[in-house]
Amino acid sequence: MTVTRAQPDLFAAPADASGKVQVPEAWAHLPFFADGHHLAILEKIGDRTDILPPRDQVFAALEAVAPGDVRVVILGQDPYPTPGHAHGLAFSVAPRVRPLPASLRNIFAELQEEFGTVPPDGNLGFWAAQGVLLLNTALTVEPHNAGAHAKLGWDALTREVLHEVSGHPTAFVLWGRHAQGFRRDIRGDRHLVLETPHPSPLSARRGFFGSQPFSKVNAWLKAGGNPPINWTTP
Question: Is the pLDDT of residue 218 over 80?
Answer without folding.
Answer: yes
